[in-house]
Design brief:
The protein has two helices and 18 strands. By secondary structure, it is mainly β. It has two domains: about 70 residues, no CATH class; about 375 residues, Beta Barrel (Porin). Helix 1 packs antiparallel against helix 2. It is globular, with a radius of gyration of 32 Å.
Amino acid sequence: MIAETTLPRHRNNARPGGRGRSWLIAALLVTIAAPAAAQEERSSAPSLPESAGEETPPEPMDKMQVLEERITELNEHIRQSEEARQIASPLSWNGYVDFGFFVPLGNGGVGWVRDDGHTQFPQYGNYAWVFLGDILGTPVNTRGEVADLGDATGLTVPRYDGINSDGAASFILNEINLRPRYQLSDNAIMRASLNFAPRTGSDFALGDTIDADLAELEYLITKDGKTSFFAGKILPVFGIEYKEKKSDQRFGITPSIISRYTVGSQLGLKIRSKLLDDWLVLAGSVTNGSSTIEMFHFYNETDKNDFKTLNGRAAISAPIGRLYRSDDRLEIGFSGEWGTPDRAHNDSRKMWFIGGDLQYLGVNYALKAQIMKGKSPGLVDQGVWGLELNWSGYAEINVLPFAHLGFIGRAEFRDAMVTLGTDRLYLTKQARFTGGIRVVVNAHIAVKGEYLHNVEYGGITAFDNDVVTSSMVLAF
């Protein structure tokens, strides 16, 4: 919802012919009629002899002419008032406060365990440290932050564990978000998004963080607004989940298990277009790096290499009202990324992702699914992590049976190996089942709850690392 700095529009005087104008015209008629009646009374009184007074005063202006002129003035005044009321400020703000409570269920809120002595996977004995599970597998909020990152023995580089709950249940102010929008001209729009995340400090330093995940110019190339050019820190084009990366946009709470590869903002240039009566959707961008999120192993803000990352998506979006409802729409898309690995210097080897997505959007329900795979070469001399992402994805359904009550169900899996030379290996073979509820109090308040059940497979011994989490989003 965009807050506009317009004057209030009252129902009774929304149109020139409304009740408000009727009262004004009635008052004007009374004002004009009163002097006219007084004049008529004076004219009916007995006249004095001609010698008792001076020349007869001139006839007053025609009363109907006076009335018409005053009504014309009144109409012009009302028109100007309504035009002023309809002028919106070029600057608008929206955002939210996201407050929550979470409960980690097992393993201290950590999503991984260590394969001590390489007992579960002896074939990876050449790695100094092998970790099983998902380091981001226990998210508690829409940002994707986990209950606890854990203590990975042998880690030589310090890392930021923002929540670090040690497995305890906790209240948390997940995020304060501010999103200004300014209409620079008829064809140009500026947008930005700032996130404030209060976290625990240490060693006499605050742990609070501020990050800017959007700072872009959108220029509308065509008059119908369906083709736009973007520049700055932009939203990605890979898949569909980036469209609901914020708490007030997401039906549930937590992101999918593959969102870490697809929802990260990118610095660069983008063009997007809807063609053939919105049946064909095309988007492409040239950016510094991939669409991975900043707190994962693969991300860079400013580039260290000259070869930029190429990103693209093509989709067919078709209304299917003839089959069921007039507002239903089916969209099937394909995405890809290709470029030098994030954080790497100039290198001929490339990082890439490919994937497909599906959306079936109805009046009170939505079905969404996405699948992808990818690879990035590890460059141990540059501290660049390697990735082998086998086919991974999710399917999600959102149902809103009542205006204020909705439910979410999601099934997902991730099969990946993340390595740093032969020093470290994170082996993930994890499935997750998420169920949740959404209660909409009004247009500005939503309360959500989710249960995340993690399941290990593919030879990894199961361990308890489920999460219960909740969120109250106050949007404006």
